[in-house]
Amino acid sequence: MLNIPMPEFKCPAKHIPSDRIERLRDAVRRFESRYKTGGPLWDHQNSAMGAVGSFFNDSLEKLAAGQAASGAIVMPTGSGKTALAAEIIKATGARALILAPTVKIALQHYDELRERAPEFDVSMFYADSKDLGGSVIVTTYQSAVPLFKAGGLPDDIDLIFYDEAHRSISTVRSDLHGNLGLVEIGLTATPAFSEDRHIWGAFERVIYNMDIRETVELGILAPLRGFVVETNVDLTGVSLKIGREFLNEVDAEKHLNIFARNKSARDFYLDGFRGVPAVAFCITKKHAEEFAALLRSSDVRADFVHSGLSNEERESRLAAYENGSLDVITTRDVLIEGWDSKRAVLELNLRPTYSRVVKTHMVGRVARAREGKEAGIIAEFQDLYQRSQQPLLVYHLFDEIEYRQGGLVVAPESRIRQEKEKIERKENVRVTGKLSVSYEVKKVMELEPTNADFNDKKLLREIINTHEDFDFTNLSVQDFLKMHFNHPQFHGTGITLLHKAFGIRHTQGTDLRLAEDLQNFLWYVFEDELSSRNVRLSDFSDVMGLSFGDSEYLKTAEELIDGARLPRRLSVA
Question: What domains does the chain contain, in order, with CATH numbers?
Fold first, then answer.
């Protein structure tokens, strides 16, 4: 369990009959047999399956001791979490329950299971189907809660999957945790429900973690490009933010759903992207309807979807988009989560966003990779704000401040390097149609600083120690940059932590320069404890210099650490 001041893990312990544990043990053996030499999935999914195997074995020990067994898999939208769940069920042959936030996502699980494991009896329970008889049951949170309260769910479930796990921790749904079966697995792209609430009070451990930057850099998701369209709408005297992350839709509708701003978005699409499959995120349902109408008035094949439509009508319009009958879908928020389009390339972001959770999902709508897709493209419509009211842009999500119009925001290192070299030679880098990457470097408005004091060494130690695998003897620059830290005052990667605490910005291909910066940062954070152990800076520098270097020197690094009495994991106190 993560060992810092986080919401206490609350799932109750209970006695599990030995025959149930033995049945699960048999399922784990089947799983290990199938994945001993690797499975039929992508490499990153097979790595996740390896982590699941370790989690299962730990879970058997916990259950035998009367303890709850739960963990979460954190992977971005489009990286294959649904397929992963299906393969886990197929490999174990266990009785399983899948909970999803919407009927659409539940149906995606049903279809995936039917395709990957046609021999399984899969049943659905929701408004149009009331079948609980399958060896695998797929349902929604909305359907599961009243069933649970009425005692209507089967009592022989081995595995429970909580899809979009951050949606399972509301007051009403939290009672499901620890009460439905033996082993609980959360699936999510965003472990935080909001800036202040995350899933680690309901799920005890991180089973596997891969963030969106890593997934794009590995080529699993498409590279992302960005544009900033300046609207010149002056909101410097307007407050649109409610609390830390919510949008005041009434005021936003009043000031931003105006013809001039909508026209700038329409013209941006017509001038550079006509015919490119796009999704437009709007402020309200009314805004989505009006912007779709504006696009249609310019002969763009566009329509809107929102919660005011029937399920049948929504699905009909989305099907028309997927088959090419529509080119632009406008929406408020119904497509932010759980919509996995194989066609979407361009995001028109007309909705100011203050939540990193929501922003991550929005970006994910155009990040799916497919043959012939050069990149997902995010167009941010930037109004004039006070700094305290500046919404999140895709650049903030990846801790980037400088940008070129149309330039890569995140991509595999080789792509970043090649594009940079072309621009330095003043070569043309085509984005689409007549649009090319600009040579001019601009800056986005930086966000207002967090209330967290990143000069506080104790806070930084707490943040670093939220990563249970942090070990000085086996740490590379890339390891640290990709580590994901979950703390009440900081949720993010090592890349962002270095920037916030030390002002260090990571760019592709700067590992050697970063090694010294990271070494100095860690010395600053743990200096008091190291000094109390008579560890000198020179000892620490030698150790960390070796650890960041070639792996053949790691043994020497371990010896130095032991000789300097430097623990592999330093405490918070």
Answer: 18-210 (3.40.50.300), 217-443 (3.40.50.300), 457-563 (no CATH)
